[in-house]
């Protein structure tokens, strides 16, 4: 496809520009503007505890001084190992205010997983949830960590809730155990340090748009995680593109942050974009449908970024609760995995609003494609390129050659949101980021006549059997329609002369009759080529999933290949 063949523009929703202007400014500039223009607007609502934009800006200035006192300087890495909380927001923007680089970590990781990431990034200070302090302390030897600071999640909760946590009853003890943990002597408290600090002087130098802002680790489902390095400009660009796409007016929206900030999807859609439009972010330390419905009664949401399982569980919970009302949600953006048609329909029945799909990668800050927020949305498609974003579909073996019109190939993307490369991994950067700025996504797609990108599968997960390519998603989609099958993952395992053998790992409905390989093969033979029909079947109680609910095919494959337990 020629660079000037931008057929997707014709499918844009009315008013969405083809190009956007990305300001040369640090990401924190959006917080400064929100505090100036909407000082009394609630910036963060954490389970009922509210912080206004003016209060948030003050906490960030104090947090920046705390980090400065701990020796953090421009370019230093600051690790955040926390669930969603007000403290997470403060620590994130405080580090950026100094020109430091935020490194986001999953707070449920083991010490081994954390050690790799902490050692790799060279983080010198870590702001850590109390429950994760033990893992970080165990991971500390051999890293550059000088200071570990403990974050008490309960300190951000409403006063009434904090009081209830002290009650000598079983429910309070359970809640305390879920939120708090003992902290070794000598590790300071983040909240106490911030409360005692003076604000960082306004004259302190700020970072520039080309400075590094964030390292987020990716690739854990396919190999050793590597850090995607994102500049302030990349992150600012995606918030500007997002606002152009949605048309959200500043100071009017309430965004539900049910996705974790330590994930690229949750960080941008739930935090940086929210601050860009001076919205209220209703934050949840973990996803819980009942907690979301309770928050909805207190502070109705208007925009929900989510993954399909979240949408399905919320709609189901609302259907079962006569007090529930989700109709304030005008839009939901679904990402992370394919959105089933029945889930989309269920959500739109529950809300009366629209749910559209989006696509992105950690390497693209993260969004590059979105379905239009209009009746022209295309269920089942990844969407259209964002403003100022170009795409190509190329031969995976030769990314310089575009495939023919409508043919399948690897998706390449280019735009201001594309990352700077992998942290300290020049060879892997060169493999994925081409010299002319095109990023190889590793996804097999096709482009429709009107510019929608449709996913076929991940290149690394394509199965080659008998010389033929089998796309697992296509086999899975068909098998999910088989009576009694609740879910399925299709993988390739060594298959002798075939190269690889197609194997289906199937989860059955609770009341389903037994299913054997012959029945699965007969069902698949109705719609699939013979070489794509599974040659192996494993019945499993559940499928391994990522933090966002995406099936981990690599883990499924390892489990299939594992010898039976003795």
Notable features of this structure?
five-stranded mixed β-sheet; GMP Synthetase, Chain A, domain 3; AMP-bd_C_sf; AMP-bd_C; globular; ATP-dep_AMP-bd_enzyme; seven-stranded mixed β-sheet; 17 helices; 3 domains; ligase; acid-thiol ligase activity; 566 residues; Rossmann fold; alpha/beta
Describe the protein in words:
Pfam families: AMP-binding (PF00501), AMP-binding_C (PF13193). Residues 31-423 form the AMP-dependent synthetase/ligase domain. The protein has 566 residues and is α/β, with parallel strands linked by helices. It folds into 3 domains: 1-22 and 232-457, 3-Layer(aba) Sandwich (Rossmann fold), CATH 3.40.50; 26-207, Rossmann fold (3-Layer(aba) Sandwich); 462-561, ANL, C-terminal domain (GMP Synthetase, Chain A, domain 3), CATH 3.30.300.30. Helices cover 31% and strands 24% of the residues. It contains 17 helices and 26 strands. A 7-stranded mixed sheet has the order 6-5-3-4-7-8-19, sandwiched between helices. Strands 11-12-13-14-15 form a 5-stranded mixed sheet, sandwiched between helices. The chain has a 5-stranded antiparallel sheet with strand order 17-16-18-20-21. β5, α5 (130-139) and β6 form a beta-alpha-beta unit. The chain is globular. It starts with 28 loop residues before the first helix and ends in a 5-residue tail after the last helix. The mean pLDDT is 92.
